[in-house]
Design a protein that fits this description.
Layout lengths: L5 E7 L3 E3 L7 H10 L20 H13 L7 H8 L13 H23 L7 E6 L2 E6 L16 H15 L4 E4 L6 E5 L2 E5 L14 E7 L2 E7 L3 H10 L15 H8 L12
Parallel strand pairs: 1-3, 5-7
Antiparallel strand pairs: 2-8, 3-4, 6-7, 8-9
Helix pairs in contact: 1-2, 3-4
Length: about 280
């Protein structure tokens, strides 16, 4: 635990905009930054790039986030690129389609970004802690014990409880944990702690609609919003760099309980956006 850098953000007042998974989608990132009109001091941007980096698109996406100056938590891709690692460290099972595809795009992104761009993530913390809506709220990428841990809506309560206990050992009592990595918006109440996955803005949840998701934490709770963006232009940009189309990347990595329901558009109740 001592190797994990945790940065204290203090108190964030007002509504807090949370997002994850830009997936190098500059079109969606630009739309989100336009939609998030609350002041930078009153919002937290959890921008883990559980990304499928796509060279020129990736460069645009990085430039947009850095220009806006939002608060960012490093994900596994940032950590791997910053240290010159040979793979994304996403946690895909060896030999799976996701594992094979990630090897090609990671090498492509590494070349496109170059060492100067990647070096900017070396000092980025892998966890941040703040008070949002008067609630003690750390932000992590996947899990606290494993940056690339997949925690799904269907994961066992014990899996969440283990991560919460590890966080509490370092930070003390908690109210909310904000996380990402799996790319699906959901909320789980684990004892007295709410586990909140903010959703991914860069890739739809495979529910038959092009819109993506982000979350706003307000005084009356967490509200999930649909993000509208120029998905046709985004698809064209993907084709221009020969990105493989088809099933949502990472869908084959999901538990069967998640894979079927979301793919058919029957997401669990707590996954449905309010706007």
């Amino acid at each position: 635990m001592g190797a994990i850098r945790i940065e204290d953000m203090g108190v964030l007042k007002g509504e807090v905009a949370l997002y994850g998974g830009p997936y190098s989608n500059a079109h969606a990132t630009r739309s989100f930054l336009t939609a998030a009109t609350v002041s930078p001091s009153a919002r937290e941007e959890d921008a883990p790039a559980t990304a499928w980096p796509m060279a020129r698109i990736r460069l645009k996406h990085v430039a947009l986030i850095r220009a806006r100056g939002g608060v960012v938590v490093a994900g596994n891709c940032e950590r791997q690129l910053a240290t010159g690692a040979g793979d994304c460290g996403c946690g895909f099972a060896p030999g799976t389609a996701c594992d094979r595809l990630s090897a090609a795009w990671y090498a492509h992104a590494d070349r496109a970004l170059g060492p100067n761009c990647a070096a900017g993530w070396r000092g980025c913390p892998m966890s941040r802690h703040s008070a949002m809506q008067a609630a003690a709220s750390p932000v992590v990428h996947g899990g606290f014990t494993d940056i690339s841990r997949f925690l799904w809506p269907s994961s066992s309560e014990a899996e969440f409880a283990g991560e919460i206990a590890a966080l509490q050992e370092c930070l003390g009592p908690l109210d909310i944990v904000v996380a990402g990595h799996c790319g699906i918006t959901f909320q789980r109440q684990i004892g007295g702690v709410l586990w909140l996955n903010a959703g991914a803005i860069g890739l739809p949840p495979h529910d038959g609609r092009p819109e993506t998701r982000f979350t706003v934490l307000a005084a009356d709770g967490a509200r999930v919003h649909r993000l509208h963006y120029d998905h046709a232009a985004a698809a064209g940009a993907m084709a221009a760099v020969e990105t493989v189309p088809g099933l949502r990347p990472g869908a084959g990595n999901r538990p069967m309980a998640q894979r079927g329901r979301v793919a058919r558009g029957h997401a669990p109740r707590d996954l449905r956006p309010v706007a």
